[in-house]
Amino acid sequence: MHIEMNDLTRDKLKDSLGNRPGCFKLFIDTEDCGCNGVIVVLIVGGPNNTDITFQTEPFTFLVDPQQKPQFEEKLRLQAEENYPSFKLSSDSTLYSSNVRLRNMRA
């Protein structure tokens, strides 16, 4: 898998890390949503034992192996300029136009 991103997206992701180490995990959250799940990007301190690292530049991105089949190989993550969310898409699918970051670091 690979995530393409523009300069605005890179800047917003960098800002979200602050001065602390961390990486990003693509995650479909099904807890308490009453639906098929909501895509979020988790900010985590590092991978779980089973996580797959699928990209390391310009940021490290992870995915759970059970959720990996839900995503295409080439993805685009685009930040919204005046709103704290992102759009996740591929050549054939719009996964969500309201992807939020959730900081899970201690």
Largest beta-sheet details: 8 strands, mixed
**Any idea of the CATH topology?**
Hypothetical Protein Aq_1857, Chain: A
Low-confidence stretches: none
Helix content: 10-25%
| Mean pLDDT over the residues | 94
CATH top level assignment:
Mainly Beta
- Domains counted in the coordinates: how many? 1
Query: Mind telling me the CATH superfamily name?
Result: HesB-like domain
Beta-strand segment tally: 8
| Helix-strand sequence | EHEEEEEEE
Strand content: 35-45%
Termini separation comes to 27 Å
Strand order of the largest sheet: 1-6-7-8-3-2-5-4
What structural class results from the helix and strand content?
Answer: mainly beta
Q: Architecture in CATH? A: Sandwich
Counting copies of identical and different chains, the oligomeric state is: single chain
Domain Core: 1-102
Protein name: Iron-sulfur cluster biosynthesis family protein
Pfam family, one: Fe-S_biosyn
InterPro entries: ATAP_core_dom, HesB-like_dom_sf
Helices and strands in order, then pairings?
Elements lengths: L1 E4 L1 H11 L5 E7 L8 E7 L7 E4 L5 E3 L10 E6 L6 E4 L4 E10 L3
Parallel strand pairs: 1-6, 2-5, 3-8
Antiparallel strand pairs: 2-3, 4-5, 6-7, 7-8
Pfam families: Fe-S_biosyn
Protein name: Iron-sulfur cluster biosynthesis family protein
InterPro entries: ATAP_core_dom (IPR000361), HesB-like_dom_sf (IPR035903)
